[in-house]
Amino acid sequence: MLALMGEYWGSAPVAFWLCAAALALLAVVGIWLSIIDILTHRLPNRIIFPSYPAAAVLLIAAALAVQDWNRLVSLAGGAAALWVFYFLLRLIYPAGMGFGDVKLAGLLGLYLGFAGWPNLLWGTFAAFLLGGLWGVLLIVSRRGTAKSAIPFGPFMIVGAFLVLALG
């Protein structure tokens, strides 16, 4: 998304600032949710639910500012696809995925979808890679076992940020 913002800087400053505001929102919400998830293993609705319309308005306005109709489709499709994917994981193995992660997936799907379908896949992959590496580190350091619960929200958020910054 940062590369996309670079394109907008010269040709569409309104879209640039809308994307910057959307990323700032994600940064604030992401840090807040990560801290809460690490401390409580919860992702509160009172934070996630208001973030959906705020992010959607900013990203939709950015797409409209440059008249990029494909971004409108990909941000909505990204949110839906990532929500459904995490929901299916939750259905298959409820002990392994909380419903807060499912709700967070939809929000992150807005951003990753806006940035493009490949970013949606890479962001999801990065979250599972980082979470898996953390789990292995806990097992190797004997601070946890294969059955230890870890908060997955921070890995989802960091994975999305990495892809939005580098993708």
UniProtKB/TrEMBL annotation:
One of its GO terms (molecular function) is aspartic-type endopeptidase activity. Its EC number is 2.1.1.-, 3.4.23.43. The keyword Transport does not apply. Keywords: Hydrolase, Membrane, Methyltransferase, Transferase, Transmembrane, Transmembrane helix. It comes from the Bacteria. GO terms for biological process: methylation; signal peptide processing. GO terms for cellular component: plasma membrane. Residues 25-136 form the Prepilin type IV endopeptidase peptidase domain. The chain crosses the membrane at residues 14-35, 47-66, 72-89, 120-140, 149-166. It holds the Pfam family Peptidase_A24. InterPro entries: Prepilin_IV_endopep_pep (IPR000045), Prepilin_peptidase/N-MTase (IPR050882). Belongs to the peptidase A24 family. PANTHER family: PREPILIN LEADER PEPTIDASE_N-METHYLTRANSFERASE-RELATED, TYPE 4 PREPILIN-LIKE PROTEINS LEADER PEPTIDE-PROCESSING ENZYME. This is Leader peptidase (Prepilin peptidase)/N-methyltransferase.
